[in-house]
Amino acid sequence: MPLESWATEATFALNLFTLLATTVASVFSTIAALGFRGTPWGRTLAPLPVVFVALTVSTTVTIHPTTPPHGGWAASVCWLVAVAAIAVTCWRFVSLTAELEVAA
Question: Where are its TM segments located (predicted)?
Fold first, then answer.
């Protein structure tokens, strides 16, 4: 089996695994965010579903056969949204654990 074919198959398999993992994480993070809604921890967890949905969409775009191998601009926008939501989550977590008021 040529290396290029093997690498392509492995990349596709890893992308499918990533798609499955981020889909499951989206469901669980949504359940957690809704379960803690109205509490300080709920505000901290609120951006997590956005992170996992953005990563799921990014992986879906990357796997789709009509897009470039790297996913193109759509994947880049999804990653930008995910990184911004991660930054918000981190800030809220640090603020909460440092006993600072979590601002909207």
Answer: 12-36, 48-67, 73-94
- Whether the full predicted model's pTM is greater than 0.85, yes or no, is no
Give, in order, the Cα–Cα distances in Å from 56 to each of 9, 11, 29, 73, 95.
Answer: 20, 16, 13, 15, 28
CA distances from 9 to 15, 19, 36, 60, 93 (A): 10, 15, 40, 16, 39
pLDDT of residue 100: 61
Quick check: 95 and 101 in contact, CB under 8 A? yes
Q: Tell me the one-letter amino acid at 10.
A: A
Each residue's pLDDT tens digit, 75-100: 889 999 999 999 999 999 998 888 76
Number of domains into which the chain is organized: 1
Residue 101, φ and ψ in degrees, nearest 5? -75, 130
* pLDDT of residue 54 exceeding 90: yes
